[in-house]
Design goal:
globular; mainly alpha; 470 residues
Length: 470
Amino acid sequence: MWAVGWPAMLLPALPTAAIVLLWWPALPSSFQFDDWNVIVNEPRVHSLAAWWDSLPGIRPLLKLSYALNMTLGGEPAGFRIVNVLIHALSATLVWSLLRTRGLRTGLAPAHASLAALLAAAIFALHPVQTEAVTYISGRSSSLAACFCLLSLYSWVRSEQSVGSRASAWWQAACCLCFALAMATKETALVLPVALLLYSSDRPLRDTLRRLIPVLLLAVLMLVAALSLPRYRHLLAVSLDTRSVSENLMTQAHAILYLIGQLLRPWHGNADPQLTTVTSLNWYSALLCVIWLSTLVTALARIRRMPVGAFAVLWFFLWLAPTNSLLPRLDLANDRQLYLALIGPAWWLTTHLGAPHRKRSASGLGVAILLLIALGWATHERNRVYETEVTFWEDTARRNPASSRAANNLGMAYAMACRDDAAAEAFERAIELSPDEYHARINLLLLRSGQLPGIDRQRCPALDRHSARGL
């Protein structure tokens, strides 16, 4: 049996060590895309005093983390060190939670530990996670996820100590971490359902009774969020983007794309060009039926097939906030898979780690090859973030029909004083989308030598907030 004789405390350290090894070379990579608008050119996160003066506002804890980073120097490496530490803590929590869940489903201790370790390693190393770790603005996903996992960990500890004073303290910690997750990103609102899913092996009445404080807190935080004008504005914009029926059909395709991202680790894409579905067609209807049937089947078999059903429900649950009813301008992004990945990873590793001698050796070989492949793909994906030129060259190459990618590539070239390449990229953006006024303005400013922020002596970062207009 694998892992026999290994010190138990060493197991969760392995994914952490792999994370540090893979992300260390990427620490000094430049700011990218939304980093300029939400961090570098956002005065409300440039100091703790400015952050405090901006309250109340959306995602206050996320902005506080940015303000702390800016106070400590504001270099990209400092931001990424925090992101890597968040990711490492999350991987450790994944190992602990999946090991406990495996034991509760009847797996042998060695099998449960091994499956949890491999799942945590896949969670740690899969290249889709670079968008929540290497991409600094992706911290909204990884930090909220970390607090959700801490809340779930506290929930489990409160279950294990029912009847003692410690249970109440762990329950309070569960609620506190839930509140911190919501203060980081509002998609954490589905956490109570995740707690219910994790405890699906327990009597439903007892679980619902213990969930009452969490549910009351969820209602309170939802009311507080809707009391803020900014959240109400974002909700109105979302509802005006497309109808609920159009969004459901569109997201049926987006979910298929995201599943493909898990299966094709070399296919990272910062700006996927997915098509909005505006009318019912047989393919969209078929996808909706498949996803709905999968969910219903998993719900019906949650006790008979605790691993497989849990994996399916966990995957769809964490995609629900971004890939179901509420429309978004960007239909799908890799960072939406940050927590959803855990379900499929655990299902796979429970099979790879099955305690059968013949399967054990082959499973070990498959697991090693898989982790090596994922690690290499993550290493290669991290290289894309080295500079804005490399980032947007990769994005434009993967999305040749995207005028937005072409326009941003032109800005990256202009920042690097590669005027001819910048002009070509702007012209390409205009060709792809004749009404792309951002590219037209940028091209005119470039040719007149007035593109904001360009220093022909040193070529520092320019004012992207005014020039990009994204």
